Amino acid sequence: MRIGINLLYLLPDVVGGTQTYAVSLINWLAKIDRVNEYFIFLNQESSLLELADAPNFHRIVCQFRAVRRVTRYLWEQVILPFQLRDYHVDLVHSLGYVGPLFAACPCIITIPDLNYIALRDFIPAGRRRVLQFFSTHAARRAAQVITISHFSKAEIERYIGLQPDKITVTHLGPGWTEDSNNRGRYESIRMTYQLPDRYIAAFGGGSPHKNIPRLISAFQTVARDFPQALVLLGHVPLDVDLPGLMQNAELSGRIMALGYVPREHIGPILSRADLFVLPSLYEGFGMTVLEAQASRVPVACAAAGSLPEVAGDGAIFFDPLSVNDMSQALRRCLANPDLSAALCLRGLQNVRRFSWENTARETLEVYRRTHSRAASTRKS
Fold first, then answer.
1. How far is 37 from 55, CA to CA, in rounded Å?
2. 43 contacts: CB under 8 Å, gap ≥ 6
3. pTM for the whole structure
4. Fold entry, domain 2-173+356-372
5. Which residues lie below 8 Å from residue 165, measured CB to CB, with a gap of 6+?
6. Using alpha carbons only, what angle is made at residue 74 by residues 70 and 80, rounded to the nearest 5 degrees?
7. What is 183-351's CATH number?
8. pLDDT tens-digit map of 208-233
9. Which of 110, 221, 242, 298 could be bridged to 146 by S-S, CB 3.0 to 4.6 A?
10. pLDDT in tens, 235-264
């Protein structure tokens, strides 16, 4: 097979989890598949993206900048179909919600979630309508849709109206694989960020659905009873007055926002936390839960979206809309070492269910089935 991979959407260090998905999937496909030819279509911003350097993988850098969203959609819908024909591509897999509507070859599209519906109040109306239009029509025209959780599959069935057999679930793996037990390396990282000896870790972020204000409120209710600080990897939302909070005597120096954290620092920082908390209102998968579980850290997370499916029995769950429920979950984990130890053990067992190798093998099987069906159709 000659397989096209459409990464025209990818803005490095901007698109978050979909970048991790794309890079990890491609790198594992390169490890397990030396037979098929792959043609990876990239925009100018992602032309230097670190991807597998295998002889059967080829980069095609398209001469446009994806930050200009209109140009990206025009290229994807008008020019990409001709490129697929010129490279004699047998099928194309678009990894970022949207794919070409009129390609001559079979199309596979990954729709990780339906955030443009679930988070409609947090996404600009124009951008939401364009994404919903192209994503919906691409899914309906596609030979197969891939998604990353059974929660998302149910959402796609409900809102786009696809039949279950047209949707394949390929779970993801943890977002990093570095050895987090290198003590000397952690000491250097700890000094870089001036991390406290004991802390609760969470990922920040500017998007309101990350639910950081409620997490800070929940932490504030338990801070007087426990020594841990709250360390946020990333930035805090604009509506959080961190300097103002620090004027509270109990919170002075107890909340840290690290800003941008390189991928190679995430594992070591997580691995030294007393607790990892994910308060998000909506996640199509929740890769950071697996990162924490793989780091042998107890997890408390929201009972929302796909998180119960992904975290399994390796987490304590809470209502993300209830500050009281969240604070009770924090208190249970911090006050009970036996519970924390049990969560660490169950988390390690849970994370074994997920791997990028499985993701790649299941995706490759989708390619094979799609190509076989297309070949049978042409013969008949």
1. 9
2. 7, 8, 10, 11, 61, 62, 64, 65, 66, 72
3. 0.91
4. Rossmann fold (3.40.50)
5. none
6. 140
7. 3.40.50.2000
8. 889 999 999 999 999 999 999 999 99
9. 110
10. 887 777 777 776 675 677 789 889 888 888
